[in-house]
Amino acid sequence: MTDDRERMSCDDLGRAVDDLAAAVRADRYAPDAVLALARGGLPPAGALAYALGVKNMATLNVEFYTGVDERLDEPLLLPPIPDLAVLRAERLLVVDDVADTGRTLARVREFCSEHTAEVKTAVLYEKPQSVVRADYVWRRTDRWIDFPWSAPATVSTAAG
Fold first, then answer.
1. Helices (DSSP H) in 7-102: which residue ranges?
2. Alpha carbon of 10 to those of 16, 43, 82, 101, 125: distances in Å?
3. 44-86, pLDDT tens digit by residue?
4. Where are the alpha helices (DSSP H) in 28-94?
5. Taking residues 83-95, what's their average pLDDT?
6. Buried b / exposed e across 130-151, counting CB within 10 Å, b at 16+?
7. Where are the alpha helices (DSSP H) in 27-102?
8. pLDDT tens digits, residue range 126-155?
9. Spatial contact of 119 and 146, defined as CB atoms under 8 Å apart
10. What is the structure's pLDDT at 25?
11. For the chain, how far is it from start to end, CA to CA, in angstroms?
12. Helix, strand, or coil (residue 7)
């Protein structure tokens, strides 16, 4: 039996952020702010904001997945919803870990477009069935992805 999973390491994350930042720069896109989609988008968004020199960040929590391949009918934006006007961003980069169905990214892009002049999206992975094509994608896959931050961690304590 084969393990049909994509495994992302911390080293892969570093390469992905470098590649995504290079793609954003090559596109001559200079975001004023980065919006991280919690939870999976937090690590790449923070790293990408550093790589692009963007200090203005916000986080948006969206509930859609309730388990492995189990989801709600529609993605829900959860409070507290950031006041995007406070970001004073003309150009916003929305970052997530994966565009699986793409419905979360579509919902967030729609919401942000009501408040910001230009919204672009960046993801580490995009799946073929995604209803949204992200502006910046590190890799495309149809496999389930194990991210370094979503794998169960082994915690050890020293006797003391």
1. 10-26, 42-52, 84-87
2. 10, 10, 29, 24, 15
3. 999 999 999 999 999 998 876 555 566 656 777 767 677 776 6
4. 42-52, 84-87
5. 81
6. bebebbbbbeeeeeebebeeee
7. 42-52, 84-87
8. 999 999 999 999 999 999 899 998 866 544
9. no
10. 98
11. 43
12. strand
- For residues 113-135, average pLDDT: 95
Cα(115)–Cα(93) distance, rounded to whole angstroms? 13
Contact 60/92 with Cβ under 8 angstroms? no
DSSP assignments along 110-129, one per residue? HHHHTT-SEEEEEEEEE-TT
What is the rounded average pLDDT of the residues 14-34? 97
Written as six digits, the tokens of 101 are 């169905």
Count of CB atoms within 10 A of residue 159's CB?
3
